[in-house]
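Good morning,

Attaching, inline, the backbone tokens for the sequence recovery test we're adding to the shared suite. The designed sequence is right after.
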């Protein structure tokens, strides 16, 4: 997905293997959008969303999931409740992904 964003042009991408690494990146980089999977090792996407919403992070959050022990709908509804600005259920196509990213970035600020 990062490569798709870079190829689409106009996007600077940083990748992290888990939520802790993502938070560390955000200490030194002012991202406009954080894209997170909800099922990740160490610090999962739900906890990452909670931490971002409690922090001064001004950007948007896009959560995605194919579900794990529960269906993706339940996970994604939970992500919206916690503060994600957008959600995508896996599998999704690159066109849908890019359209969602652009829509979120063109909208009002993250808070």
């Amino acid at each position: 997905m990062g490569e798709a964003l870079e190829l689409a042009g106009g996007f600077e991408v940083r990748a992290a293997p888990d939520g802790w690494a993502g938070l560390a990146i955000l200490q030194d980089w002012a991202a406009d959008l954080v894209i997170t999977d909800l099922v990740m090792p160490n610090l999962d996407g739900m906890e990452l969303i909670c931490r971002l919403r409690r922090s001064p992070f001004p950007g948007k959050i896009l959560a995605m999931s194919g579900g794990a022990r529960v269906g993706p709908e339940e996970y994604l509804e939970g992500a919206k409740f916690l503060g994600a600005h957008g959600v995508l259920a896996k599998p999704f196509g690159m066109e849908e992904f890019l359209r969602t990213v652009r829509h979120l970035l063109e909208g009002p600020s993250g808070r």
